[in-house]
Amino acid sequence: MTTRFVPAVTALLAAMLLLAGCSVDGEPVAVGQRDTGGDSQVDTDRYDNLLLECDILSDATISKVLGGGSVQGTFVGAICRWIVTGATTTSVTFTWYESGSLNSEKQIAKKFGYTTENIKIASQTGFTQRDPKDPGKCGVTARAPSRGVFTWWTEPRGGAAADPCAAPTKLMELVLSGGQ
């Protein structure tokens, strides 16, 4: 009887320790609603270009390409995001994976079940990626001029554009040609 009791107690103690280690202090905060006051433990002077990739194109340029009226930009980790409102509200995402490669990104897209098509944009090799289950959204990935890969995604909320890849392709073209 004792030999069956010891493993059960050990498992119970392990579960209690695991659960005790999963608590998080503080209160959850919605994206864009963070507390900007108070002391920070991060030396932000060391990261003066942290948001630079999110300024790669102006909000006005992104809005013009998407045919929108207003743009609300947010930054989430290494991903830049915008919501463009107008006739159609569209989520726009830009990523720059400095150590990424086209082959790796294409393999990941295929693992998600996306269809891909090779393209050239501003003399750079790239590809489109589309989700057959959600034909309105499209991603365009291309080699970044310095290193890594850039990716633009657009995802309309509601109606889909006649060519869902037109907007992310144009955004990529602008970035690769210097933003103008």
UniProtKB/TrEMBL annotation:
<dbReference type="InterPro" id="IPR024520">
    <property type="entry name" value="DUF3558"/>
</dbReference>
<feature type="signal peptide">
    <location>
        <begin position="1"/>
        <end position="20"/>
    </location>
</feature>
<protein>
    <submittedName>
        <fullName>DUF3558 domain-containing protein</fullName>
    </submittedName>
</protein>
<keyword id="KW-0732">Signal</keyword>
<dbReference type="Pfam" id="PF12079">
    <property type="entry name" value="DUF3558"/>
</dbReference>
